[in-house]
Amino acid sequence: MNHARNAAMALVALLLVVAGVWSSWGSAQHVLLSKGREHGTLTVTGCNEETCSGRYVPDGPPSPHTTLTIEHSVAAGKGQTLPVVVKPGTSEAVRTGWGGGLHAWLPLGGALLLAAPVVGGGLRLTRTAWSLAGVGGALLLGAFFAL
I need a surface site. Which of 47, 48, 103, 111 has the fewest CB within 10 A? Predict the structure, then answer.
């Protein structure tokens, strides 16, 4: 019975962490693997509840995009200029640099914080749980201060 409980808790913790990576990878891949992608700056002209849009100026050759949208965050305000990379085949952008990279991995930070009590309480691995919570919290704080 004890092995079944440990297996179930390990499965739940693994599911949480995998879901965090999966959720983060949609944006993080564009930040981490940005070589060969279109880079530029986005000047935010307006925001709604989900996205912000603005004028795009490419760093390299002329671009077919003149305006782009970016995910709305508290750090993207009207008039702000952000370094971005364009998602291939879309008119969506992802913020680059430390702030963009940490912002892209926010779901993983939350998943690590959620997995910590499961690992600590369910698996009785308190040091591992504190490590997961520390890494998740550091990721969230890093994103907060970098943005």
Answer: 48
Q: Distance (Å, rounded) from C-alpha 42 to C-alpha 73? A: 14
The more confident residue out of 1 and 93 is: 93
Tokens of 17: 């962490």
Of the candidates 86, 113, 105, 83, the residue with the CA atom closest to the CA atom of residue 96:
83
pTM for the whole structure: 0.86
Burial environment of residue 79 by CB neighbours within 10 A (0 to 12, 13 to 18, 19 or more): exposed
Alpha-carbon Rg of the chain, whole angstroms? Answer: 19
- Beta strands 92-95; 51-58: pairing state: unpaired
pLDDT at 126: 97
In three-state form (DSSP H/G/I as H, E/B as E, the rest C), the secondary structure along 46-67 is EECCCEEEEEEEECCCCCCCCE
